[in-house]
Amino acid sequence: MVKKQSPPPALWQRMLRWLASRSEALRTRVDNYLSRRPHRSFRLTRRRDYVRSLQLPGYWSFTNEVRRTVWGYRKHFFLIVVVYALLTALFVGIGSQETYSALSDTLDQTGQEVFDGNFGSVGEASILFLVTTTGSIAQTPGEAQQVYAVLLGLLTWLTTVWLLRNLLAGHVVRFRDGLYSAGAPLVSTFFVFLVMVVQLLPLALALIGYSAASASGILSGGVIAMMFWIVAGLLAVLSLYWMTSTFIALIVVTLPGMYPMKALRTAGDIVIGRRIRILLRLLWLVAITAVIWLVILLPIILIDGWLKDILPALSWLPIVPLTLLALGSFTILWSASYIYLLYRKVVSDGSSPA
């Protein structure tokens, strides 16, 4: 019987050296991570150890700075809104004018019973505003349309960031330069976007739990309702905590040669010790965007109803769906500009992690 020969000693030595090198590399990576992130989970950090400077302008002041920047390069950004709105209409589609008209007619018939005085038109327009902004007039997109919508949204984001980076650096660029060059980090940006989708899972669980709890009636009061709201609130806070750095990573990943995981680590290092202040700025962005939609879309709904009452022949014209399409493209442009300028403000502060 032939005995099985053991591997030569040189092979075992190479394997041991490889394991030792991997272990040392992992230990070095962990030490570097801990040195960059001085906070520890479930440990109270002393105030002297987490004070980190971050000089940012006020909320209104910074919003006006973003507005001035967008307006200063309005030719480039107008083309972004127009081109990507047209591409969205072509590949994804727009809201259904028939659905919107049917809903508007229903409100006209029941408006006298629901609204009183001179506020009837405003009340009907407010309901239409809520319905349209929640996507109730949009046709259910297919799988291909959903993919197109995500890709076009990412391309709008990337084009805006690319143009802002070059224009603020003093380079003379055209819109077509951004259109052709901004898509280089599309795959990396898509992976960061997928990470953001995963980070939304706690919030999604909270919403699913709310639907189930509302159907079962346990939210009427008592200890169970209180416990539910505590758990749902913690899940929502967890998603917001994670996504704060991921929004910054969507800017970092557009840098040349940047990989998705490296962008996420870099963004995490940037926001450490500043997360609450950055999160408040992002929530302010959401509030300002909602106000913009309200200021633009609500008068458009009123004008649409008034115009089609005077000229019934224009009832086919999808004024509100087209406005929604333009507002969607503008929202991506505005958000990308806001977050990019916020990112520049944050990285200009060179204080150490805290």
Approximately how much beta-strand content do the residues carry? Answer: under 5%
Q: How many domains comprise the coordinates? A: 1
Question: Helix- and strand-based class?
Answer: mainly alpha
What do the pLDDT scores average to? 80
Sum up the overall morphology in one term.
globular
**Largest sheet composition:** none
Rg, rounded, reads 26 Å
Helix and strand element order: HHHHHHHHHHHHHH
Which spans of ≥5 residues are poorly predicted at pLDDT below 50?
111-119
- Counting DSSP H or I runs of 4 or more residues, the number of helices is 14
Description:
Helix 4 (74-91) crosses helix 14 (319-347) and helix 10 packs antiparallel against helix 11 (223-252). The chain contains 14 helices and no strands. The protein is 75% helix and 0% strand. It has one domain (56-95, 138-347). The protein has 354 residues and is mainly α. It has helices at 9-36, 47-50, 59-72, 74-91, 97-114, 120-133, 143-168, 175-181, 186-199, 201-216, 223-252, 260-271, 275-310, 319-347. It is globular and about 90 Å long.
Secondary structure blueprint with pairings:
Elements lengths: L8 H28 L10 H4 L8 H14 L1 H18 L5 H18 L5 H14 L9 H26 L6 H7 L4 H14 L1 H16 L6 H30 L7 H12 L3 H36 L8 H29 L7
Helix pairs in contact: 3-14, 4-7, 4-14, 5-6, 6-13, 7-8, 7-14, 9-11, 9-12, 10-11, 11-12, 11-13, 13-14
